[in-house]
Design goal:
Blueprint (H helix, E strand, L loop, with lengths): L8 E9 L3 E3 L5 E10 L7 E12 L3 E9 L2 E3 L13 E5 L6 E9 L7 E9 L5 E3 L17 E8 L2
Antiparallel strand pairs: 1-11, 2-10, 3-9, 4-8, 4-10, 4-11, 5-6, 5-7, 5-9
Length: about 160
């Protein structure tokens, strides 16, 4: 019996952001140092994208994060009125809460040119939203940790 030829992993790349990032804007902005590039071997390859982002915002506010391939937004909800279209987001109530937002998306870029995957984020009003830290960010040994976030891409061969 012959095994199927597709579905093998061609390459795996990752970016890890261990710094703290902050935004206080309703305008979607690319998250600093949170981009990974991959060059598919064939136009039939698919790219499996994993995003693990540790994000929080001030109490009683929302944030949303969008996933992009180059300048094209991918993996988002349907359009509905003026609601934002995003890969993930949440409403936060508390200063020591950190959302571990994990997203998984199988993309079909249909190219052998390099593509970049990145995230843009925005927050409600002018309330700050943070990555890899809590809102209170106290210098204590048992709470308010510093964290890491990552984007991992895997080429799935056809």
């Amino acid at each position: 019996e012959t095994a199927a030829g597709g579905g093998k992993i061609g390459q795996v790349l990752q970016t890890v952001n261990t710094d703290t990032e902050t935004i206080s804007s309703t305008t979607y902005t690319t998250i600093t140092d949170f981009t990974v590039a991959i060059t598919p071997a064939a136009t039939t390859s698919k790219i499996l994208v994993f995003v693990d982002a540790k994000v929080t915002t001030s109490g009683n506010y929302d944030y949303t994060v969008q996933l992009f391939r180059d300048t094209t937004q991918v993996y988002m909800g349907d359009a509905a009125g003026t609601r934002p279209r995003a890969a993930f987001g949440t409403y936060v109530d508390g200063t020591r809460y950190i959302e571990s937002s994990v997203s998984c998306y199988l993309d079909s870029p249909s190219t052998t040119s390099e593509v970049e995957y990145s995230c843009k984020w925005a927050t409600e009003g002018s309330q700050p939203t943070y990555m890899n830290r809590t809102v209170s960010d106290a210098n204590e040994p048992m709470y308010d940790p510093r964290l890491a976030s990552s984007i991992t891409v895997m080429e799935v061969l056809a």
